[in-house]
Amino acid sequence: MEQLAQQLINGLSLGSIYALIALGYTMVYGIIQLINFAHGEVYMVGAYVGYACMTFARLGFFESLLIAMVVCGALGVVIERVAYKPLRDSTRIAALITAIGVSLLLQYTMMAFVGADVRTYPALPDYLTASFHIGGVVISAQSLLIIGTSVLLMIALQFIVHRTRLGKAMRAVSMDADAARLMGINVDNTISFTFMLGSALAGAAGVLVGVYYNSINPLMGVLPGLKAFVAAVFGGIGIIPGALIGGYFIGAAETLVSGYFSSLYKDAVVFAILILVLIFRPAGLLGKNVREKV
Amino acid sequence: MANPMVRTLLTRGVPLLLLYAVVLAGLNLGLIDDYLMATIATLCINIVLAVSLNLITGFTGQFSLGHAGFMAIGAYTTGLITIAVPTVPGFIAGLLAGGLLAALVGFLIGLPTLRLRGDYLAIATLGLAEIIRILLNNVEFTNGAAGLAGIPQMMDWNWFFILTVGSVLLIRNFLRSSHGRNAIAVREDEIAAESIGVDATRAKVLSFTVGAFFGGLAGGMYASYFYFIKPDTFGFLKSIDILVIVVLGGLGSLSGSVIAAVLLAAISTVLQQFTAVRMILYALLLVIIMVFRPQGLMGSREVSLRIVGRLFTRKPTEPDEPEATR
User: Fold this and answer.
1) B256 to chain A, minimum CA–CA distance in Å?
2) B279 touching A, CB under 8 A?
3) Per-residue pLDDT reduced to its tens digit, A71-94
4) In chain B, what are the domain boundaries?
5) Cα–Cα distance for residue pair A102/A95, rounded to 1 Å
6) In the structure, how many helices (H) and strands (E) does chain B have?
7) Which of B85, B177, B190, B277 is most buried, judged by most C-beta within 10 A?
8) Phi–psi pair at B324, nearest 5 degrees
């Protein structure tokens, strides 16, 4: 029982990170129906920006987090404007291949600059390394920090999407881009704004994962990116609450498999979940089946 | 030259046989060393991989990101069977079994996911390839991450020539059959194809299964020539390598895939030492081609061997029959 509780708490930290990445996937998919394969790399860049801020500029955790979010947000907009915007009217396959190209480009450019070596995140200040014992369960301040930060960011996102003009525009564009344009919404800017939001969240996730796993490398974005995508599909791609549920579910599944079975198979289980979802409920947990009209 | 059969044989067969003879002579005279032969082997394998992925992605319009997974299945099946039965029949059985097993797995994953429209196949195949790689890394009989060594080397230039030319011809003929026509119709417009009576799911699953078979066959060729395989060879990057060839050559052009495979083999031989630079170049290539020329270098045009063949038959007057895969 204690072990289960412990695993679930670990799963909650990991799940928060997946959920933050999955939100970006799902928002972008919701608005332009593109699987943004480069999203995992934006998260990797976030981790490196956080690392640079903490190690070289000796900034605190929260300042670093903020800077990483700003840099990644800007990166997201640049990617969208340079690589995806010219392809908005071409086939989906062309857009997908471009996304993969951008993803590889970011990985290997980063590798050319910082080298392929693993880097260790700097130690956190004392008040963040404490841990609390409740019964036999250890809760570290670090996991509280990860969960707390993610929940705050998700609340902020919820506020932006549902209570602001830009959020309203986002929802309108994702429903019907042409109709939104006729209503005077600047569709291009709204799409860029969506990329900015999603990428900023991924940047935050990058810093958090640096704190969680303590080590970063240029290829770190590939697997978490794919898993976050699985999370988004699980919850129903394009649906924001679905990404949250999916993120926490995948996080929990992964820690439970490594805790009770073998950590060698944790990735395989995540992908098996994906295939099962695609077979039995392709629209995802919260998704509705939409009929295609000619 | 009244008999069209004879003409076809001459125009298509002569250049191919010449190519075969040149390489054979080079091997016998010692002009082609082991390193060059390994490059030729990689080239042949890449051609089979690219042409089979082009069938799925270029001609049927289904985006698959797990071709390396099928290659892995074929490689391990062929490897294990030829280790058990180190004879030529054992090798042939291994190749066939590898292809069939890959086709079976492709069929099983394609059937549920190809019913869906959209990009689900990309994700499902990506996940499948990862699952295959993780399983191969962790089960006993494949010797895990250390890799499978000591596979008898059965592949030589004769086999490469037969298998590569055979695969390309079979896929070309498949595309010219009614099944291939259905696949192309589905790529162009799935709803329109269904409304004129094409069973879209069936066409997609068929193409995907055939593509998976040849992916497995290419894996078997790889295992038998390089006699050592490990799961990480067949990772996500391998799938991307194949995709780059297909995209560069043109989505929907078999000869484009062959040309791009040759081109990229040359590029990567030059950039052998600089893996990072090579990957940056590949990535840039993908983005730039997609932004400026989304249909790939060749588009869906084909270059026929007939152009080369005319040099030998000296009969350039007859008009071409319309190309099939337009």
Assistant:
1) 17
2) yes
3) 999 999 999 999 999 888 887 778
4) 10-312
5) 10
6) 14, 2
7) B190
8) -75, -45
> What is the C-alpha separation between B40 and B223, in angstroms, rounded?
15
> Quick one: tokens of A103?
């993803």
Torsion of CA B10, B12, B15, B16, to 10 degrees: -120
Give yes or no for a contact between A236 and A242, defined as CB atoms under 8 angstroms apart: yes
> In whole angstroms, what is the distance from residue A24 CA to residue A157 CA?
11
At the second CATH level, the architecture of B10-312 is Orthogonal Bundle (1.10)
Model pLDDT for residues B183-224, shown as the tens digit of each residue: 999 998 888 999 999 999 999 999 999 999 999 999 999 999
Chain A touched by B135 (CB under 8 Å):
yes
CB contact under 8 A, A229 and B123: yes
Residue A118, both tokens: 């693993």
- Residue B307 β-bridge partners: none
Across the interface, of B127, B135, B290, the residue whose CB is closest to A275 is B127
| Cα B169 from Cα B163, distance rounded (Å) | 10
With beta carbons less than 8 A apart as the criterion, state whether A212 and A147 touch.
no
Alpha carbon of A41: minimum distance to chain B alpha carbons (Å): 13
Query: φ, ψ for residue B33 (rounded to 5)?
Result: -85, 180
For chain B, give the number of residues: 326
Give the pairing type, strands B228-229 and A137-140. unpaired
A119 - beta bridge partners? Answer: A216
Residues A233, B123: contact at Cβ < 8 Å?
yes
Gyration radius (Cα) of chain A, Å: 19
Q: A227: exposed, middle or buried (C-beta count within 10 Å: 0-12, 13-18, 19+)? A: buried
Q: What is the SS3 assignment for B171?
A: helix
Quote ipTM for the complex: 0.81
Measured between CB atoms, which of A86, A107, A271 is closest to B131? A271
Q: What would the two tokens of residue B1 be?
A: 């030259």
CA separation for the pair A59, A45 (Å, rounded) = 17
CA distance B238 to B250: 19
Give the pLDDT band (50/70/90) at residue B305: low
Helix B178-188 and helix B200-226: axis angle, to 10°?
A: 110
Say yes or no for a CB contact (<8 Å) between B130 and A86.
no
Closest of B53, B162, B161 to residue B102, by C-alpha: B53
